[in-house]
């Protein structure tokens, strides 16, 4: 099981503190891979979803934007993960009364 999968499990169980710690551990690989590496997409997306669940909308928005930038640069706009972040951004906009 990958760190991100474990963090997703904790998030789904409502163990947000544990989930956030594990997502951040998974993101530690950024120092070796660089800030725009495809391997960072899953933990960034998971952390964005967790941040949304915790009501940290600004953080969630920033994380979704970062995921979109990475995907656009490396995998193109047709990659299915784009939908997750676009829906996440739409939910944030709705919650902020922007839709």
UniProtKB/TrEMBL annotation:
Tell me, what is one Gene Ontology molecular-function annotation carried by this entry?
kinesin binding
Tell me where in or outside the cell this protein is found.
Cytoplasm, Cytoskeleton
| Tree of life domain | Bacteria
Q: Which Gene3D superfamilies match?
A: Tetratricopeptide repeat domain
**What family does the entry list?**
Belongs to the kinesin light chain family.
Keyword annotations of the record: Coiled coil, Cytoplasm, Cytoskeleton, Microtubule, Motor protein, Repeat, TPR repeat
Recorded hits in Pfam families, A to Z, give: TPR_12
Q: What do the Gene Ontology cellular component annotations say?
A: cytoplasm; kinesin complex; microtubule
Protein name, per record: Tetratricopeptide repeat protein
Q: What is its main location?
A: cytoplasm
Q: Does Cytoplasm count among this protein's keywords?
A: yes
Gene Ontology biological-process entries: microtubule-based movement
InterPro entries, per this entry? Answer: Kinesin_light, TPR-like_helical_dom_sf, TPR_rpt
């Amino acid at each position: 099981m990958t760190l991100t999968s474990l963090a997703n499990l904790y998030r789904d169980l409502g163990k947000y503190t544990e989930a956030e710690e594990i997502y951040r551990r998974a993101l530690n690989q950024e120092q070796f891979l660089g800030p725009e590496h495809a391997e960072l997409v899953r933990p960034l997306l998971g952390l964005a979803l967790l941040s949304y669940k915790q009501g940290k909308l600004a953080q969630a928005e920033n994380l979704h934007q970062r995921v979109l930038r990475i995907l656009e640069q490396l995998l193109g706009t047709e990659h299915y993960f784009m939908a997750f972040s676009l829906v996440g951004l739409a939910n944030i906009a709705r919650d902020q009364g922007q839709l």
